[in-house]
Amino acid sequence: MAEGWAHHLLKDQFESYSAGIAPTRVDPYAIQVVAEAGVDISLHHAKSISDIQDIDFDYVVSVCDQAREQCPYFPARVAVLHAGFDDPPALAGQAKDGQEALAIYRRVRDEIRRFIEELPHVLEAQGSRTP
After folding, report:
1. Where are the domains of the chain?
2. CATH code for the domain defined by 2-125
3. Collapsing DSSP states into helix, strand and coil, what is residue 29?
4. Which one of 12, 15, 44, 116 counts the least CB within 10 Å of its CB?
5. What are the beta bridge partners of residue 59?
6. Does residue 60 register a pLDDT over 90?
């Protein structure tokens, strides 16, 4: 979801990539709730860190605690920022039905959107160089 929002909201400021420690398919609920907000992530694919290892990053943003804990080393010149969001699939697994699961995804979708909207300001406040 974060990559989709970054492409949609900040495409003129940042080139965004999303990768995981143990990537899986893009979650259908995530595709659905992001589409409800007007962003199509249906063509996105889950990538591994090794898929993007040759890209020279200025910033690395982790969006879940598991990724933060298992994140690989990045050179010192890379600004690393963590934003801990709930893991929708983990929470949805405990939902009583599909509507309750979707509500979890929608909440996290909206939290991620707000974070992405504020990301340039957050980076500037931290003294990171902005593109």
Report:
1. 2-125
2. 3.40.50.2300
3. helix
4. 12
5. 79
6. no
Yes or no: say if 36 and 106 are a contact pair by the CB < 8 Å rule.
Answer: yes
Query: Which is more confident, 19 or 6?
Result: 6
**Which among 119, 115, 113 is positioned nearest to 4, based on CA atoms?**
113
Q: Which of 59, 63, 42 lies closest to 126, judged by CA? A: 59
Q: What is the 3-state secondary structure (H, E, C) of 79-115?
A: EEEECCCCCHHHHHCCCCCHHHHHHHHHHHHHHHHHH
Rounded to an integer, what distance in angstroms lies between the CA atom of residue 77 and that of residue 65?
22
**Are 42 and 27 in contact, with CB atoms under 8 Å apart?**
no
3-state class of 72 per DSSP?
coil
Model pLDDT for residues 21-39, shown as the tens digit of each residue: 777 788 999 999 999 999 9
Distance CA 127, CA 10 (A): 19
Average pLDDT of 106-114? 97
